[in-house]
Structures are given as structure tokens and as C-alpha cells.
Amino acid sequence: MNQQGTNRVKRGMAEMQKGGVIMDVVNAEQARIAEAAGATAVMALERVPSDIRRDGGVARMADPRITEEVMKAVSIPVMAKARIGHIVEARVLEAMGVDYIDESEVLTPADEEFHLLKERYTVPFVCGCRNLGEAARRIGEGASMLRTKGEPGTGNIVEAVRHLRQVNSEVLKVVHMSEDELMTEARNLGASYEFLREVKSLGRLPVVNFAAGGVATPADAALMMELGADGVFVGSGIFKSESPEKFARAIVEATTHYQDYQLIAELSKNLGIAMQGIEISTIAAGERMQERGW
Amino acid sequence: MKRIGVLALQGAVREHLQTIEACGAKAVPVKKPAELLDLDALVLPGGESTTMRRLIDRYRFMDPLRDFAETGKPMFGTCAGLILLAGEVAGYEEPHLGVMDVKVERNSFGRQIDSFEADLEIKGLDAPFNAVFIRAPHIISAGPDTEVLCEYDGKIVMARNAQFLGCSFHPELTLDHRITDYFINMISVEHQSITI
Lengths: 294, 196
Prior knowledge:
The structure holds two protein chains of two kinds. By secondary structure, chain A is α/β, with parallel strands linked by helices. Chain A is built from 13 helices and nine strands.
């Protein structure tokens, strides 16, 4: 008997992405550049996060024509974003055959109370998280992969570092906690008791966790790997830089060889100008994407 | 103790390392060509074959990997790893390593929503093996000296050609270690490095 959409199949796909870089692209040409540079997957969208931030207004699922164009252009997996809680956008992307859906805070949420019940879908989902409680709730709903949120479209790594450190320190705390303390921790985190038991017995999260939201240079990508990410998402960092091909290749290599500092020095030479960054404190609280989702 | 390397450029490296250790051998992640030197066998893991190929070229792994194949030491490719080993890849002019006498097709079971798990009857194993297929390739045709070890749905999904073992699926994602055991047993006495 052939079984599709099982946890093992959905989570397994993310396992194959480990050590890799997933790049945001807005058309077939960018997708080909990303694939040639060694991206393990591309995220098809209409605007990269920094443009969404600049333009304002409501950000929605991309025009299916863009997603299809990207799917035709490359042989690596294609991911696409649906709004938080938008059942129909997610079903449309699944019907189109995208390989992974990102229920993403980069888009304007469609539901401020409920996330998608992702276990009901055959297609796997990746979701953002800032701490172990958010990670637990997304996995509970059926997410097969996580990414720490960071602050998308800023080119500023500080929030990505904060969130990855937070998740990993909470995982470590649970792993070293006495069994009889887990129920109280579950209540405090808003996580299920069974989930914390699983984390404790595995010694890590039960799904792959990438870093996202602020990676702009090869050193940024290597930093996230150093802090324990399984891989990185790069949104605006590549195609908003002066030379996307060079940045894409250098970020892929720095992710693989994240502890080879001489190599990272070489990779970082003559890349041209990185994307323009934004200092987080200059962003109004209501415009911070990381606050979306719960 | 047998020392088995896992090409650690990208993909399901951790799972292969754990499986090898669970089978009682020493698992060694390989990020640089020099690390191939004192191994008894090598695993090419699942992941994205295009990404691995770019990193193989960038870090001049291609000749050292072909030299490794020349020594006659066993090599095992799972999913993307099978694509790297294959002598021919459908739709591409050049193979990657091109050392195993099979022709493969990429993504031949469809996209991720078509990915699946199934119980397989594999030659040499006493009971079915639960196998996970993820955007999996399959072997379109196999040379005369290639032994087909498993077919699923009319497609060859596991085969052995001399010291090369390849499969479309991911034995490293399950806790059933029989296939890795089979691979470790392919290491012949003459090739085993002498360690005390």
C-alpha cells in the first residue's frame, strides 16, 4: 500500500533540505539563478519582504502565474506562501502542486485567531516561530518544518539571532528538566505535555528548523548555522543585493562550510553592496511582521 | 572497526551517521576531499543533487570521488546520492560521477504531494522494508552486470552494480537498519583498513 502525506513523508522532505539555502524569487529568471547557485529550494512570491514592507497595503498569495512560471523553470522544490489562516490560498497552492507551503507572517494574516489545521493537507507546511511555545503550537497543527521568524525584509540579523537562541535555549531547558517539571513547563509555554516529552526524549525539536528573517551576507548565514539552525531562508538578501549571483553562491558555500572562517573571508570579498538594512528600533511596533501569529 | 564516510555537503547527513553508528561501524562526516582517504566505504546521502553537484565542483571533489570509486571500495547512494552515482541521467548530457551502470530519471514519481511510503519486497531481506520516497528518482535501465534488488510499481528502485549500491528511497529516515547493514557487509576484507 502506498501512503501519501504521512508525517514521515512530509517531515522527510524538510530533512532533505538540511544544510541548504532556500531563496525567495519573484520570477523564472531569478529561480534559475538561485538553482544554478546551489539553492536547495526556492520560495516563489510576488514581492520580496523588503518590497512588501516598502509598499504597505495587504500582501497576499502570489499570482498563480508567477508560481507556475517558477515551477516550470527549475527542478528543485518550489515553496510558496499563503496568508496565516487562509484555507483557500493554501488549498489553491496545494492544487497547483507546490512542494511546500509557508504559512507566513510576511503576508498579511487572513485570520487573527486561528492558524491553518495543517495536518489535513497532503502538502507539507513550514511555519515561523519565535519561541518553543509557538513552535509547539505550529507542530501541533501539523507543520512539518519550522523557521525562526527574525524580522523579514530588514537585512538585519538581530531578530533572527534572538529567536533562534530563544527556541534553542528553551529546547535545552526541556531536555535537561526533570520529568516531573514538564507539565508546568507545558502550561507556561502553551505547549502540549506530549510535545515536551517528545522534545526531551529526542533531545531536539521533532522537525527541521531553519533560520529566516534578516540574512543578508555569507557571514550572517554562517552565524545562523553556528547557532544551530538546520539551514537558512534568504528573502530579500539575494535579489536586493548589488550582485545576486555572487551573493547567492557565497551564501550557499558559507552555509555548508560555516566554521571555515578563512573560506568565509574569501567568499565575502568583492561581493558588492549587500541589501540596504533597517535598524529594528526604527520600525513601528505595528509594522513588525514577527508579531503576526501566536 | 569499519570506517564509513557520509558526504556532508548538504542533505540527510545526520540520519546516515546515526544509522551507521547503530550498525556498529564508525561514521565519519566528509566535508573536504582529504577526509576520503582513510575510509572503507562512502555514503552519498539524500538531499538536492543540483546543490551537492555545485559544491562537489566548487571544492574539487569530483576527481577524489572518482578515485575512491576506482579503489573498489563500496559506495551507497540514496535518492540524490543515486543520481550522483548513475552513469546516465535522463534529460542531461553529462552524468555526475557516472560510475554506476544504471540510467536514472529525476523526480520520476512526481512532486512532493505525490511522495509516499510503501512496503517493499527487497531481494536478500527476509521481510518487507518500509521505504520513504521523497520526490524520488528511479532507475530506467540497468546494465548487464547490475543486479536489480527491488522494483516498485514496475520501476527499479534499488540495484547493485559491483561495489555500487543505489536506491530511490531513504532508508536513513526509518529505524530499520537492514539496508545499511547490507551495505556495510559489502566491505571486503582486502579493502578494510587495518585499525586496532
